[in-house]
Amino acid sequence: MSATLSTLHTITPKQENKLLSYLMFCWFIINALQACFLGLEGDEAYYWHLSQNIDWSYFDHPPMVAILIRIGEAFGHGSLFTRLGTVIITTLSVGIIYKALPGYLKNIKWYILICASTLLLNVYSFITTPDAPSLFFSSLFLLTYKSFLNKRSITNSLLMALCITGMFYSKYHGILLIVFVVFSNLKMLLNRYFWLTVFITTLLFLPHIYWQYQHDWPSFRYHLNERLARHYRINHTTDYLLGQILVFGPFISLLFYATCYRLKIKDQLLRTHLFIFAGTLIFFLISSFKNTVEAHWTLIAVPSFITLCLALINKGTEKYQRLFRKFAIA
Predict the structure, then answer these.
(1) Cα 5 from Cα 105, distance rounded (Å)
(2) What Rg do the C-alpha atoms of the chain give, in angstroms?
(3) What is the pTM of this model?
(4) Does residue 103 contact residue 9 with C-beta atoms inside 8 Å?
(5) What single string gives the DSSP state of each residue in 141-165?
(6) How far apart (Å, rounded) are the C-alpha atoms in residues 125 and 108?
(7) CA torsion through residues 117, 285, 134, 260, sign
(8) Is the separation of the CB atoms in 323 and 255 below 8 Å?
């Protein structure tokens, strides 16, 4: 291990938690200020309108973002309160992602630098869309999955089910995370506790399915048919590819993509993150041949991107680490 990463051993667990707390505090303050002084986007106004009538689903999205807005506005009205729930849960997400890391990759100083230089994570830490609760429950799921790998139990199955349900009530893209986790660990299909998780999640998601049934499946018809582009354009794909350089950096993403072939996967948790990150990007690349793909739809892959970055830094030379630091600061 290189000299830079070995500095981890000079930081006590108490100091590590203190630095993580400082990061979360600063994250909350900065995003609260942005939430207060930057005007709402059109989509946020639309979600605010939905929040005035809480239901099990809406035309194009599950209800979690509307619930989040409603909770924030219980304390007042205005852009800060409309976004308050988002600021709180994304601040929590920053802490949860760190706790969900494999133990040997935990280095709080590198983690702070990567979080601060990942554009997608910063922008959607105050803008209120379904992506914020999706990131929160995805991060929480990865933490519970880490525990599940260490101990298959009814408790961990229940916790995973609650996280998955939260993901599904946030954004339909949550299903991708589950699919790629299963692909990365096919032995789960033979595990009774995994099927217990599936059963509990299904029960908890039934109210949403029933609402869709009552209203003739509007969300499914919209996403699977009505919103598809009639004709393919090359810019659907090129814009997506360029967007994935921008949203994951942009500078650190260039270094990451150029050196990711060096990754050596030695444990199940890191293998899972590789499947999530690569699978998410490939899925939306294929989707770009049918429709416009928004760059931020890959937000669910941010925890895996951070984890894989730390894995590259962990195995990198001092020269590589210095270069990564310069790109991150830039």
Answers:
(1) 9
(2) 20
(3) 0.91
(4) no
(5) HHHHHHHHHH---HHHHHHHHHHHH
(6) 19
(7) negative
(8) yes
